[in-house]
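Dear support,

We are seeing what looks like truncated structure output for some complexes. This example has two components. We would appreciate it if you could run it in full and send us the complete token output so we can diff it against ours.
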Amino acid sequence: MPVLSVENALLSRRGVLKVGACASAFLATAGLSASLSGCSASSSASGFAVLRSSDLAFLRALIPVMLAGSVPASSMPDAAKATLNTLDDNLNHLSPALLSLTQQLLDVLAMPVTRGPLTGVWGRWENASPEQIRHFLQRWQNSSLGLLKMGHGSLVQLVMMSWYECPQSWAACGYPGPPKI
Amino acid sequence: MPVTDPFREGLARGWKTHDGSQLEGDLTLEADVAIVGSGAGGGTTAEILSAAGYKVLLIEEGPLKTSSDFKLLENEAYASLYQEGVGRMSKDGAISILQGRAVGGTTLVNWTSSFRTPAPTLEHWAREHAVAGHSEEQMAPWFEQMEQRLGVAPWQVPPNANNEVIRNGCEKLGYSWHVIPRNVRGCWNLGYCGMGCPTNAKQSMLVTTIPATLENGGELLYLARAQRLLISGDQVTGLECQAMDSRCVAPNGHKITVKARHYVLAGGGINTPGLLMRSNAPDPHKRLGKRTFLHLVNFSAAQFPTAINPFYGAPQSIYSDHFQWKDGPKGPMGYKLEVPPLHPALASTLFAGFGQSSAEQMAKLPNTHMMLALMRDGFHPDSPGGSVELRSDDSPVLDYTLTPYGWEGLKRAFHSMAEIQFAAGASAVMPLHSDARYMTSLRETRDQIDSLSLELYRTRLASAHVMGGCSMGENSQMAVTDSLGRHHQLRNVSVHDGSLFPTSIGANPQLSVYGLTAKLATQLAERLKSS
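Here is the complete output from our reference environment:
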């Protein structure tokens, strides 16, 4: 499988210590080339403080998969939209160093040349099935590359934290909300 | 009864403050003593020095938020009141690090637990780290002074159900437990200490030492990042600060130059070593930023047949030190058992799942109990802690090393927590690990814990207590400052914060910072008289 071959190539040719550096260079190069080639917009998308148009297709595919089960299907579009807006605001408060790491991660996920080999999703995110997305998250969580494990953790935390900061998520987890002072 | 906002009233009366985000040009400020950081160490130092008649300038990177700004909402609080917009983590991303960043520092958002530095810790520092003059007896009056100042007393109200689990479980098992002393006056028992106290009951620096400093004619500069100390020989001749935008994310281009006789660094672990590194401060023995400790925390979730409502009520009121010192300070890793409050966003990041399984866990939130273990790192040779380094943009980050010794402590803590949770009546327990699920008996849970691969990323790890990195001690080859916080190489620089600690504390550290810095500041006030 092409997906495995990328990771295996990284693993087989170099020692474990070098894998991190190699993958890091790979990801950084991907992010850099994305910025240079104009594949990823450098400015934010309309209506967002930080998120770029190139980030949106992935996040709009990812969020409903992560929220599944915590919101009825009929409310999913609103819930996903609220999550995306909260996520944008959270990114807008991250330190520049952490925002830059997050944007590199999103670049790697947006660009076909890295998305396919690293996620196994070869078509556009709009066309990815929930099953494909869950599979990609699982392979990152179980990857031997620390960077992909870190990427998995970041995606889960960013999305889930943003969703549970939205008041419309509270009823389903039995949280009555803060008391009135 | 309407809640007043004494800080805003003080501002209206004419307290002198400078908002970096509102500057329209560069600024120069002068003071007898410039204090970088307005948390436990900076606030305490500011009050004592200003009361002694010195002109004090308090410098805070974060925003000024007061009780009327605190809406008890996770999104607002985390993004505005925590370091790096609550994104701070270890360099490898495997450990979340919660540190405050606002006027009041971490005291604004901590959970109010107030313990004196344990005697075995002070003894260990004297014996192993050449710390002089800080024995239990010598420190007692300083702790007492700060306990009175900040209303520290054991919590009189019955614990919430989340904390009661520790008491009930330990009682059943014959393990020791105690009531936590808290720094509150007139607490409403709401449970939102981590989002800023809306009633000013928590005796944070925002409502105690900082107002006292401003009443005494001190000044406060906020939304200003201390970027670089200007060093000439063994003297600091100035401090360059960058004014920040109102989100506290990026510098807005204006500079503030600070001139003072003496500079006190109180930005806390990670930040204080970071400032000294950016300043190319002398570090002949390469001690700066080394031995940074975290009280690394792991978690155990439990389901109860009755409601726990872990989001309401004083967040921490019961603890157990049963496993803290049983093998001596240098034995296998000891740990303190406490609980965190569980609001939805925090809970979801701890469970760290998504989709159907996450939804099922979150749906049970009202019946969920969460316990945590604070690892007492830094006492054993195999617990070296982490090192602070600078990223390419000069911001500091912690590279923390977890050794097999540390993992062994985490594993025992998983066992202890599960045992106590079942003894208290839990119907199911789950260690927070990617491969774990709820198990309905202690035996199954123990088997699960023993079978888990304890490794980074799969094990949920966090820290709210960054300590060390500017270790104190009389031996300048081992320490950055002497026992009075005086920099070993720079004559007019002192460190007054948790970065002084040569190891972790073995208890929530705020009162350790208050007591120690009250002592250091009082002695600094004396020295400044004669210099």
